[in-house]
Amino acid sequence: MKGRKLVRIQEKGQVTLPVAVRQQLGLKKGDLVSVEATSGAVIITPQEVLATQALDRIGELLREKGLTLEELIAAGREERAALIAELYGIPKEKQGD
């Protein structure tokens, strides 16, 4: 998609994205988008892209720390078991996984 497209803001603030824009971004009816105002501009980003970017960043941070997803999950299980033992008095050995 090249060039700017003009759209009109409707009575309730609604804007219809041109077909070419929706196609380029892979947007369809019901999809969620993030809307962010900057100085003099509005950025519309498909929500799935934001989630993917966040997951990619989490993966980068894990790799930087030398951790794997499996290690993170295991650590979470250990922490959960410790909390259950502390809060409810159920020893780790008696907790089912």
CATH architecture of the largest domain: Ribbon
Structural class: alpha+beta
**What is the H/E string?**
HEEHH
Helix count? 3
Helical residues, percent: 40-55%
Cα-based radius of gyration, to the nearest Å: 23 Å
Q: Which fold name corresponds to the CATH topology of the largest domain? A: Pemi-like Protein 1, Chain: D
Q: Distance between the terminal alpha carbons, to the nearest Å?
A: 51 Å
Beta-strand fraction estimate: 5-15%
Q: Strand order within the widest sheet?
A: 1-2
Q: Residue-averaged pLDDT, rounded? A: 89
Number of domains: 2
Task: Report on the architecture of this protein.
The chain is of the alpha+beta class and 97 residues long. The radius of gyration is 23 Å and the shape is elongated. The protein has helices at 19-25, 47-64, 69-88; strands at residues 33-38, 41-46. The protein has two domains: 1-66, Pemi-like Protein 1, Chain: D, CATH 2.10.260; 67-97. The relative contact order is 0.07. It is built from three helices and two strands. A hairpin with a 2-residue loop joins strand 1 (33-38) and strand 2 (41-46). The chain has a two-stranded antiparallel ribbon.
Give the arrangement of secondary structure elements.
Elements: H1 19-25, E1 33-38, E2 41-46, H2 47-64, H3 69-88
Antiparallel strand pairs: 1-2
Features:
about 10% strand; Pemi-like Protein 1, Chain: D; 2 domains; elongated; alpha+beta; about 100 residues; two-stranded antiparallel sheet
